[in-house]
Fold:
Amino acid sequence: MTKGSVEERLAAIEARNARVEKNKAWETSLTRRLSIALLTYLVVLAYLLLIDNDRPYVTAIVPAVGYFLSTLVMR
Structure:
């Protein structure tokens, strides 16, 4: 292996590591978790309204809060 080849491989590995760290930061971000919780609430709310649930706005909170609580350990 030439010195240039090793340096190119090292640069490629460092670029990949930076990409992976950026993706990991997004996966554990509060913004992402809140967005998913909100979408969960809206989808469940739509379903509960469709089936004419008695208290759809309150009932739809349960799965959204459950999801958010399950992600609290992600840091």
Observations:
- The radius of gyration is 21 Å.
- Residues 3-27 form the longest helix (25 residues).
- Residues 3-70 form one domain.
- Residues 6 and 12 are 10 Å apart (CA to CA).
